[in-house]
Hints:
Blueprint: H1 10-32, H2 56-76, H3 86-111, H4 118-143, H5 150-169, H6 173-199
Amino acid sequence: xxxxxxxxxxxxxxxxxxxxxxxxxxxxxxxxxxxxxxxxxxxxxxxxxxxxxxxxxxxxxxxxxxxxxxxxxxxxxxxxxxxxxxxxxxxxxxxxxxxxxxxxxxxxxxxxxxxxxxxxxxxxxxxxxxxxxxxxxxxxxxxxxxxxxxxxxxxxxxxxxxxxxxxxxxxxxxxxxxxxxxxxxxxxxxxxxxxxxxxxx
Length: 201
């Protein structure tokens, strides 16, 4: 029968592209980073700092822009998870709108790299704030769909709440890495769960 991309929902396709774009461009940028670098001592955005990495920084910034672009169809496609409940739809729509906004905030992180100062800090702050509310709201809406895998939702809430707790108590770059890659895992799990949703429709 072979592989046919049309057999997969947009949530799955865009979700895996989100993971692919961010991880590949981050790794390439890291490979070109000229100084010692790691999650214990450096924030992710340092990879895109053109003062510290004049060549590799472009890869990270492009990766953020592409990931942000791909987040837009990912969140819009969550309409597949609507139920007959108007309350559930309303909650999901709020999450989708904030999710699209987080995609634009991530694009802004790529456009305004760390070396730009205040514009980057604003974009970064907006992204992480939006990311927190998006994960909470989307997960609540998904829990109201009986076809949603509850373990995926529990994971999403655990990552979101623990990230907030760590940010308020421990702080530091490692928390940012935990939040970003923990969120990417949630995207992957939801992309996988969307395949199962289509099979049961």
